[in-house]
Structure formats: structure tokens, C-alpha cells
Amino acid sequence: MAMPAPEHCPPWAHDPNWKSDPRFSRNKPDILTLPEDRDKLRAAGRLAKAILNYAGSLVREGVTTLEINDKVHSEIVRRGAYPSPWKYQQFPKSICTSVNNVMCHGIPDSRPLKSGDIINIDITIYRSGFHGDCSATYTVGSVDAPGLALISATREALDAALARLEPGAPFSVIADAVMGVAHRHGFNVSPDMCGHGIGREFHSAPIVHHTRTRRAKEMRMVPGMAFTVEPILCQGSTEFVLHPDGWTAVTVDGGRSAQFEETVLVTEHGVEIVTVDETGTGS
């Protein structure tokens, strides 16, 4: 498959033995202090949202997730960027497509979507040295009322969390908001699937929990931090098993799940959602 110019490719695009940069480990956030770095993150976020909107427009009954993957890959490269998941720790495709009881990291395949399915599409792009990451859950044809309620509650939970973000706030406000909304609607929040720091690295510190932890109470949001908020709500059990592919996580009870995700940047004056439409508006 096509690739963008080398300067817009992450190191794993050409090196299967790549290891994460120790400067931006899971233990140390990558703090963006330079205005030009923050602007590059914003640009990556806007492009990621544009690509997600394009991917969502492809969702319909009868289309395969592999067809969506291939069209999205071509559009990302056409826009001068690289699909971050492709070849990342040997992930075989360019996007994640998680259908019904797949919680996350679903690998696009040749099965056609059916009316009644719900599908999360997770997009991450890399351009000019920075990643932008966002996802949304879409409906296929006619979806039943419980499925629609799950999707609506998940978006509401994310929006509630985003509204609580501010410089100096503890990360525990995210879990408080997400769990409050989820439980009010009768859904459960995955404690295992977390948000993450992002920027020059695809995944770095901080780990962003959507359920309450002691660590989240101790961690504070610092200007220059960029991270994702991406709660997964489940109709039933939040326990999961991995498929033999090592990526696809499915609920043990077959219950459906939904997820929405945005990338945010903490500044000296507030917290910006950087995965906005290219017009500057949110989702």
C-alpha cells in the first residue's frame, strides 16, 4: 500500500524492530512547550477528525471494514500523512474497526456490515512528527433502542469528562464524569481500556483511566500535556478476551460496547480539544 513522503512516516513504517523512544515513555509525559509543536499537534488533530468524518461516511449495510480501511488509507496518504496504526507493533491494517461486541482494536476484514450493527472506527494519523487520534461509534441501518442508548450514553460520558478538564485538575475528574453518566444510564465502564499521552509518540504517559484509581487522584493536568480521553461503555460485563490475532478484544458475555475518543491539549489558559473539524468546530 502507498506511503507518504518519508518525513511524514513514523519510525515503525520502515523498521519492524522499532522500539518506543525512551524520552517519551509510559512513565514520563511529553510536555509540549514550543508554540510550533502545539500547532503541529493541532494540525494533526484536525486532520484526524477530517479522516474520521470521511470514514464514517463510508459506513453502510453491505460494505466491509476492509473496504473502509483501504479507502481511508488512500485518503490519509493523499492528505500527506501516515495511518499511525499500520505496522505499529505489527498491527496489520491502517484503522481499527470494532463491531458490536468488539471492545477495541478490531482488525478490518472481509465480512460485510449488517443492518443493526454498531461499529467504532478509530483513526490515528501522523504528519510533521505528530499524531492525532480520535474515534466514534456509528450505526448501520436500523439499530435497536438499547444499541442507540449505548451509543448516546457513551458520547455523553466523553463530553461530560471533557467539560471537567482544566490545568491543575486531577485526572480523577475524568473517571468521576464518565462513571457518573454511565451508571445513570445503566451501563458499565471498561477499567482496562485507557486513554494515553500522545504527540511525538503514538502512546506515552499519562495513562488516562476512565474508572476511579488512586493514581488518577494524584496526577495533575499540566500545561503542555496532550492526551486522549476515550471511554468504552458496555451493556454487560467489561471483562474481555483477546482473539488469537493478539489485538481484537471482545466482551466475554457477547454484550455490545461503544466508544468515542478525542485528543486534547492542556494549555496555560484551559484545555483544547484538538480533534476538531477543519472549520474549527467540534463533533
UniProtKB/TrEMBL annotation:
<protein>
    <recommendedName>
        <fullName>Methionine aminopeptidase</fullName>
        <ecNumber>3.4.11.18</ecNumber>
    </recommendedName>
</protein>
<feature type="binding site">
    <location>
        <position position="133"/>
    </location>
    <ligand>
        <name>a divalent metal cation 2</name>
    </ligand>
</feature>
<feature type="binding site">
    <location>
        <position position="133"/>
    </location>
    <ligand>
        <name>a divalent metal cation 1</name>
    </ligand>
</feature>
<feature type="binding site">
    <location>
        <position position="230"/>
    </location>
    <ligand>
        <name>a divalent metal cation 2</name>
    </ligand>
</feature>
<dbReference type="GO" id="GO:0006508">
    <property type="term" value="P:proteolysis"/>
</dbReference>
<feature type="binding site">
    <location>
        <position position="122"/>
    </location>
    <ligand>
        <name>a divalent metal cation 1</name>
    </ligand>
</feature>
<feature type="region of interest" description="Disordered">
    <location>
        <begin position="1"/>
        <end position="21"/>
    </location>
</feature>
<feature type="binding site">
    <location>
        <position position="261"/>
    </location>
    <ligand>
        <name>a divalent metal cation 1</name>
    </ligand>
</feature>
<dbReference type="InterPro" id="IPR001714">
    <property type="entry name" value="Pept_M24_MAP"/>
</dbReference>
<dbReference type="InterPro" id="IPR000994">
    <property type="entry name" value="Pept_M24"/>
</dbReference>
<comment type="similarity">
    <text>Belongs to the peptidase M24A family. Methionine aminopeptidase type 1 subfamily.</text>
</comment>
<keyword id="KW-0031">Aminopeptidase</keyword>
<feature type="binding site">
    <location>
        <position position="203"/>
    </location>
    <ligand>
        <name>substrate</name>
    </ligand>
</feature>
<comment type="function">
    <text>Cotranslationally removes the N-terminal methionine from nascent proteins. The N-terminal methionine is often cleaved when the second residue in the primary sequence is small and uncharged (Met-Ala-, Cys, Gly, Pro, Ser, Thr, or Val).</text>
</comment>
<feature type="binding site">
    <location>
        <position position="196"/>
    </location>
    <ligand>
        <name>a divalent metal cation 2</name>
    </ligand>
</feature>
<keyword id="KW-0378">Hydrolase</keyword>
<keyword id="KW-0479">Metal-binding</keyword>
<feature type="domain" description="Peptidase M24">
    <location>
        <begin position="40"/>
        <end position="268"/>
    </location>
</feature>
<dbReference type="GO" id="GO:0046872">
    <property type="term" value="F:metal ion binding"/>
</dbReference>
<dbReference type="InterPro" id="IPR002467">
    <property type="entry name" value="Pept_M24A_MAP1"/>
</dbReference>
<feature type="binding site">
    <location>
        <position position="105"/>
    </location>
    <ligand>
        <name>substrate</name>
    </ligand>
</feature>
<dbReference type="GO" id="GO:0070006">
    <property type="term" value="F:metalloaminopeptidase activity"/>
</dbReference>
<dbReference type="Pfam" id="PF00557">
    <property type="entry name" value="Peptidase_M24"/>
</dbReference>
<feature type="binding site">
    <location>
        <position position="261"/>
    </location>
    <ligand>
        <name>a divalent metal cation 2</name>
    </ligand>
</feature>
<dbReference type="GO" id="GO:0004239">
    <property type="term" value="F:initiator methionyl aminopeptidase activity"/>
</dbReference>
<dbReference type="InterPro" id="IPR036005">
    <property type="entry name" value="Creatinase/aminopeptidase-like"/>
</dbReference>
<keyword id="KW-0645">Protease</keyword>
